[in-house]
Design a protein that fits this description.
Blueprint: H1 5-8, E1 12-16, H2 20-32, E2 36-40, H3 43-52, E3 57-61, H4 69-79, E4 84-89, H5 94-103, E5 107-110, H6 116-150, H7 155-168, H8 174-188, E6 193-199, E7 206-212, H9 218-236, E8 242-246, E9 254-262, E10 265-273, H10 279-310, H11 320-337, E11 341-348, H12 351-358, H13 360-377, E12 383-388, E13 391-397, H14 401-416, E14 419-422, E15 425-428, E16 431-437, H15 444-460, E17 466-467, E18 475-476, E19 482-483
Parallel strand pairs: 1-2, 1-3, 3-4, 4-5, 16-17
Antiparallel strand pairs: 6-7, 6-10, 8-9, 9-10, 11-13, 11-16, 12-13, 14-15, 18-19
């Protein structure tokens, strides 16, 4: 969401729309949000505006006089790639809108279904992604400037700094980043043993990595690891960024260590040997720690960008586009291993009444509460997604139809008994759920359509119901098992 009027006032939006009534309503809304809005109703006028200045965001109608929204999108992605683009489409242009997504548009909004709340949320997410990407670019630029300044002082050290900077700037997993940092420091400074302990923000984000010289005694290795653990605890408690710690009664009498911390991520790097470290070695080690910290920050930014791309901004569940990517992957896996794959289609009952009587803010709270329950109410292997509006999907790998229907019944029952705390009252809601299983001749679209149709039958049956496939000939599951009909 937009953080403040002060922040949005620094962000400019180009609004290109040839419907006068919609044009005026959108312009007044965006100006009211504090944005600097430049307005035009013609494609060629919009191109002239883009050539004059760089906008943070362009809102384009797909069908425009002069130049089409698709032609403007192509020009922007070639000449002003930092400008995010959102398209307004009509129902007949969804195919072109899908093409626009492949060309780099951030999102598109069907004009017939668009609300100001939805527009505000999409604009906020698009601008937030732009801020994150620009921050990432500034970080890399600052890193490069730091490397260039070092060339004036020490050419030999610069070679090592450049190696670690270039290596750690590459996209990688957390594990690769950690092992890469250890390897680069090991190759640059003479240690008998080098280790790293890492704790990240996510679950299971704890890792260790080590390098050691051949022939180092096991008791020395065990003592070093114990001290690395102790130093990690000191770092987590706020000890100085780098220090040298003499360790008496050990063959590794000298340890050089430093911490790299960004957000909730903490890495502690330590190297040991039996001779003191020179000031130059300690300084170079410090440079590596700073580079490692920049790499951690860069990795966090990349993770945030990925999250923005695949997560729904309101509920935090996977979004519509990422669901289809996951569905293709799960269907391929189901075919390869001959395992069942089921899908639940959930629709919140009477959600329009909730919005109309309680307001959209309370409606959003209901959706977020329901999404949080779905996330915690399914198995770890299951995937909950927001399909759109008040519709949700749960993808169930290695799950037959009967098992899927039983899960749907449990979800329906528990949701109907769940109290959603709203200001001044608790609200109870119900859902209608359709269940479907992948059959040999289905593709992803057919599986979603089957679950959607089952959900629609649950609505017709009075809502707060679970339905599976229509009664009739048995529905084959992978492996030959027959699916159950509607309960």
């Amino acid at each position: 969401m937009i953080n403040s009027q002060e922040q949005s006032a620094r962000e400019s939006i180009l609004l290109v729309e040839d419907d006068p009534q919609l044009f005026t309503a959108l312009a007044e809304f965006l100006v009211g949000q504090g944005f600097a809005v430049r307005r035009t109703a013609d494609g060629r006028e919009a191109l002239a505006a883009l050539q004059e200045e760089e906008f943070h965001l362009a809102l384009l109608d797909l069908a425009l006089p002069g130049l089409s929204g698709l032609e403007l999108l192509s020009w922007i992605k070639t000449n002003s790639p930092r400008t995010e683009v959102i398209l307004f489409t009509g129902p007949e242009a969804l195919g072109v809108a899908d093409q626009a997504l492949r060309l780099g548009v951030y999102d598109y909004l069907p004009k017939s279904k668009m609300t100001l709340d939805q527009l505000q949320a999409v604009v906020a997410r698009a601008l937030e992604r732009r801020r994150v990407e620009l921050s990432n670019l500034d970080l890399i630029a600052n890193l490069r400037r730091t490397q260039e300044e070092l060339t004036l002082h020490r050419s030999q050290d610069l070679i090592q700094v450049r190696r670690i900077g270039e290596a750690l700037a590459l996209p990688r997993t957390w594990g690769q980043l950690i092992q890469g940092l250890v390897n680069l420091i090991w190759e640059s400074l003479p240690f008998k043993i080098l280790g790293l302990r890492f704790r990240g923000a996510g679950k299971g984000m704890s890792r260790e990595a080590y390098r050691r010289q051949p022939g180092l005694k096991e008791d020395a290795v065990a003592g070093f690891k114990a001290n690395l653990k102790r130093l990690f605890q000191l770092a987590a408690a706020g000890a100085p960024h780098t220090s040298e710690e003499p360790l008496p009664d050990q063959s590794l009498s000298q340890i050089l260590w430093g911490k790299a911390q960004t957000g909730e991520c903490l890495a502690l790097v330590a190297g040991g040997r039996d001779t003191p470290f020179s000031p130059e070695e300690a300084e170079l080690f410090q440079i590596f720690i700073l580079q490692g910290e920049a790499a951690l920050r860069n990795m966090e930014l990349l993770e945030e960008i990925k999250k923005l791309a695949i997560r729904d901004g309101l509920t935090g569940l996977y979004n519509y586009r990422h669901f289809w990517e996951l569905l293709v992957h799960e269907i391929m896996k189901s075919r390869r291993y001959q395992s069942p794959l089921s899908l639940l289609f959930l629709d919140l009952d009477n959600f329009k009444i909730i919005n109309d009587t309680l307001g959209h803010l309370q409606g959003d709270l209901v959706l977020k509460t329901l999404a949080a329950y779905l996330q915690g109410g399914v198995r770890q292997a299951d995937v909950a997604c927001r399909y759109g509006g008040e519709e949700f999907l749960v993808l169930l790998p290695e799950t037959g139809l009967e098992q899927a229907i039983q899960l749907a019944k449990r979800l329906r029952h528990r949701i109907s008994r769940m109290a959603i705390p709203l200001p001044g009252r608790d609200l109870q809601v119900t859902v209608s759920i359709g269940a479907a299983v992948l059959t040999p001749h289905m593709d992803g679209g057919a599986l979603v359509a089957a679950a959607d149709a089952a959900m629609y039958r649950a609505k017709q049956a009075g809502r707060n119901q679970v339905c599976g496939p229509e009664p009739g000939p048995a529905h084959e599951e992978p492996g030959g098992a027959a699916g159950d009909g509607a309960p």
